[in-house]
Amino acid sequence: MLVVDDSRLQRRLLAGSLKRWGYEVTEAGSAEEALQLCRSEPPDLVLSDWMMPGMNGIEFCRAFRDLSADRFAYFILLTSKREKAEVVAGLHSGADDFLSKPVDGDELRARITAGERIIGIQKELSRSNRLIRETLSELQTLYDSLDKDLLEAKKLQQSLLPERHRVFRGGTLSLMLRSSGHVGGDLVGFFEAGPRKLCLYGIDVSGHGISSALMTARLAGYLSSSAPGQNLALTRDDRGNPVPRPPAQAIQAINELVLNEMDTEHYFTLLLANVDLDTGLVQVAQAGHPHPVIRRRDGKIEQFGTGGFPVGLLSGVSYRQFDIQLQPGDRLLILSDGFTECPDPLGRMLGEDGLARIVASLGDMHDEAFLSGLLWKLSEFSGASDFPDDLSGLMFQRNDPTLGQE
C-alpha cells in the first residue's frame, strides 16, 4: 500500500493506522517520488492527498493510471473538497474513491476493505483473462494445425478425381467436384469395364466434413479401376475378363457390404451407369441419387429414373434398372442434390425445373466449359459464390463412334 502526502505528519498518522491493521506501507512525500516508487514496485492500493505542491493528486492519478494501464490498483483521494464538480473531476482522472479530511479511522478501514474486495475481483478477472488468452492461443495453434491437415485432406480427396476430362472413341467425359468446406462427402468417377464399356458413378455421403470424406474415399476403393478384383461393379466373363455387372446388382452388393462390414452411421446415395460406347445404350440404377439429366441434341431436356432407396440403411433392398439411349450429340448429366437443393436469397430451392432451365441455357457450351457454366449459373441463382452443400457432377456426351480415337 502506498501513502502519498506532502505532510510528513499526515503520512505518519495514516501509515501508523494501516500498519496496526496489518498492511505493508510505503510512503512518498510527493507525486513525483510516488511515481518513481510505482515504477519499481506497483502498489495494489494508493492513498493520495489531493492538494500537493508540484504535481497534485489529480495529475498523479492520471499519470499513475497511464503507468499501470495493464494492472489494476485501487486509488483513494484524500481531500477537503466538497463540491460535486471537483468530485466528478477526480473520478474522471481515474480515482476510485474519496475520503474527506480529517480522515476518520473507521471510515478509512471500511473504504480500504471495499477496495480490497474490488482488487480481489480484478485479480481474479485478470487471471481468468490470462487463462482465456492462453487457451485461445492453444486453440489457434490447434486450429492452424487442423486447417493445414484439412488442406492436405482436400488435396487427397481431389486426387480421387485425377482426370477431369477424358476423350473416348464414341464420347467425351468431363467431371467436377466442389466441396462446401475443406472436404466433403461427394464424389463422381468412372472406370473402363471391358472393351468399349464405360462405367460412370455419382456418390453423395450423408453429412459433411472429415467423416463423410473418409467414407467417400473408402467407397471409391470399391469402384476403382486400379483394383478390378475389388471393384463391386465388375464381374468376370467365362474367360476371366472383367465385364460390367448390371448396375442394380452392383448397388445391391455395395449395400450389403456397407451394412455387414462398415461400422458407420453414414448412408449415401449412389447412381451407377454402364455405357456402351458403340451403341450409346446406358444402363442405369439409382439408390436415392437425383435423376440423371439428358440434354438431347435438339435441346430437349429429359429427367427420369426410379429414385431408389439410399445405400447403408436397410438390408435386403433391391434396386430397379432402366435404360437410356443416347444418340450422337446427346449429353448425360449425373449431378448431386447440391444443385437442385441450392437456395436463392429468399430460401427457394432451384429444383428440377430450375436445373432444366439452366442446362437448356448452356447448350452452346461443351465438356468442362459446360460444367463451369453450370456452376456460374448456380452462383447467379443463389446470389453467392459459396454453396451450402457439396457439388459434384459429370457429363458424358456421345459422339459418333466411327470418328476419332480413344
UniProtKB/TrEMBL annotation:
One GO term of the biological process aspect: phosphorelay signal transduction system
Pfam families xref list: Response_reg, SpoIIE
Domain (Response regulatory) ranges: 1-116
Lineage, top ranks: Bacteria, Pseudomonadati, Pseudomonadota, Alphaproteobacteria, Rhodobacterales
Naturally occurring in which organism (per UniProt): Sulfitobacter alexandrii
The protein's name in its UniProt record: Fused response regulator/phosphatase
SMART domains: PP2C_SIG (SM00331), REC (SM00448)
Modified residues (4-aspartylphosphate): D49
Keywords annotated in UniProt: Hydrolase, Phosphoprotein
GO molecular function: phosphatase activity
